[in-house]
Amino acid sequence: MSSANPKVGFISLGCPKALVDSERILTQLRTEGYDIVPTYQDADLVVVNTCGFIDAAKAESLDAIGEALKENGKVIVTGCMGGKESDIRNVHPSVLSVSGPQQYEQVVNAVHQYLPPKQDHNPFIDLVPPQGIKLTPRHYSYLKISEGCNHRCTFCIIPSLRGDLVSRPVGNVLDEAERLVNAGVKELLVVSQDTSAYGVDLKYRTGFWQGRPVKTRMRELCEALGSMGVWVRLHYVYPYPSVDESISLMAEGKILPYLDIPFQHANPRILKLMKRPAATEKTLERIQRWRAICPDITLRSTFIVGFPGETEQEFQELLDFLDEAQLDRVGAFTYSAVEGATANALPGAVPEEVKEERLARFMAKQEAISAQKLQQKIGKRVQVLIDEIAEEGAVGRTQADAPEIDGLIFLDGATHLEPGQFVEAIVEDADAHDLWGRLVN
Ligand code: SF4
């Protein structure tokens, strides 16, 4: 199909929050009459949304920019790495423009400058089809509730890239969620840098949604999202006391009984060196309390092993924590120095081989725990959201599994189902990551 519309190629790297930024930029461009095309050759210009979180992500971003320059020649860079323009220009001096995270207007202005739009500018930004572009499948969507972070974890440079916490007004978030649900979204994934801090910067100001007052606060937000009749899943929550209030909503079935809660370590000295939020909370006691309120809760977490100064004994404490906490899903990384992070100056760097050996021990222990937890699901009846249909059957997720990071459930033979459909299944088999089930008619 030939079209005279200007054509933009788009590369989106990084985390779900960056994906939301990409969706917003793409939506704006499409609203203005740009065509979004899938190849460098078809594009008049390419936008690269970069990630600068760790060195490997930076290298990937620089490679992506290099490839786009080679294949197309006209490249606009934005995103987390754009916060440090010199890092990009030193390697790729010929990029047309560089902007930082959430600088939607600068990116769009740069596109206007180098590839003028065909139609008049329309300021309406909406992530919902048909106007909106979603990079995630249509039946689930990330819902970003705030930008930035008030913490200063010593291994992290996100606050210097994205600034302090800025919560989105609760009415805006709920309007967007409602439009997504009306457009067919079946699962809302609430994301931010620190979801439990939602509204702190606005002093939990009362906003409005559908003519009713709603506080800009996590519990009230969850309650309103829970009234929309779709799965609501919380990511990046910290164990502040206020989180307990949301657990009761999970127990009541209003939001999914699922918490993605990055603990990062268990030893108090290391947590203090990391300057983690809620580092002084008694985490195991909290977990027990959450399970008492909501026995079905799924807990996912991430950890860093080999943080500067971590002793064998402190690492052992982390392993003991895994034994006691019995978390359902865990991701782990070895500590790697990020340029600009204050942890780089801490003494006692752990040798690479020790880090790797600790990571292997950590993952082996958690794999055994995860496998055992999944075994306990065999014979149980579960609700499943279908993600895709493959040759052998349907592939979906249970309430315990977030897209892209957790496991899947395979329903062999169920090729008549459709993505976005809710079904019931009996779990028949499990390994350390995934489940196999039989459809219940
Ligand atoms: S809470 Fe810590 S790790 Fe998370 S974004 Fe804020 S500073 Fe970074």
Explain how this protein is built.
The protein is an alpha/beta fold. The protein has helices spanning 16-31, 55-71, 85-91, 104-114, 158-162, 170-182, 218-226, 243-251, 268-274, 283-293, 312-325, 352-375; strands at 7-12, 35-37, 45-50, 75-79, 97-98, 140-144, 146-147, 166-167, 187-191, 206-209, 212-215, 231-234, 258-260, 298-305, 329-334, 381-389, 393-398, 409-412, 422-430, 435-439. A five-stranded parallel beta sheet has the order 2-1-3-4-5, with helices on both faces. The protein has a five-stranded mixed barrel with strand order 16-17-18-20-19. The chain has a three-stranded parallel beta sheet with strand order 6-9-12. Helix 11 links the parallel strand 14 and strand 15 (329-334). Helix 7 packs parallel to helix 8 (243-251) and helix 11 (312-325) packs parallel to helix 12. Residues 120-131 have low confidence and may be disordered. The structure holds iron/sulfur cluster. Iron/sulfur cluster (SF4) binds at residues 149, 151-153, 156, 158-159, 193-194, 277. Residues 149, 151-153, 156, 158-159, 193-194, 277 line the site of iron/sulfur cluster (SF4).
